[in-house]
Design brief:
PorP/SprF family type IX secretion system membrane protein; mainly beta
Amino acid sequence: MKRNQCKIVSFIILVVLCVTKADGQRYFNNPIAQYFRDDYLWNPSFAGQTTRPRIYALMNSSWTGFENAPRLINFSADFAFGNNSGAGLQLISDKSGVLQRNLGAISYSYRVKFSETEFLRLGTSLELYKERLDNNVINASGDVDPVVKEFNSRGWQFDGDVGLAYQKNNFMVGASVFNLSSQNFKVATSDLALAQVQTSYKLYFDEDSKMSITPLLSYKLYKQHENIFTTAAQFEFEKVFHASLYWQSTGNMMGGLGVEIKDWIEANFFYSGKMKYGYNPQYEIGLKVVINNEE
């Protein structure tokens, strides 16, 4: 009888792993700021893309008011050094249901310069991550199931991403491949992102370049479930105010507003509506600080 109960509990845990890990990483660990406000969040080749060091911190939350609701906290920093090199750092805490995923990544990028307005960026990230199930949520009685114990005993693991991007004037097209060491993993309960392709073009309204609009297309691939297509546009006024609107193939609309103060600090707010799969709205707040390293 106890053996049957153990099998039932183990099966339930595997189902929980499948749902929380796949959906949490597929939909939730997908910060909205990656599309316009910080390219480094999706492509390591953008580490150090500006001459001034940048720091970006965000928190994304959904199912607000529910216990164990998904929550993503992401801290990134990047800077340029040398003539064509850049470096970056990301620290991520991603919690969805009973699954907690902590990740740290360091990145290096190199810019191949064809002219003053044409570049090819290459980048790579080395990641160290750990995934853990919350025993207190799964086993209210305090007993630790063998499946949970085995999963939690895996410790820290290595992974990596690679990316490239081509830029000419106001045009950009890039691609990233994620989770290189996990591409052929045998655990069917995971659904990590595999790759992302993205392109955009910035159009100015006048010769003074005070106002611009940037259309964007993005396609993100996943191992098991439906891929996500995103189309978006951002309006920007003189690096003081920006507003963006998004549509995703998951059936949801998203919007964003942001302000910049004296070209060194930026505050953003994003909202995502309900998806066709029944996921509640998401909220994201972000803060960017640009360090003035000029003498």
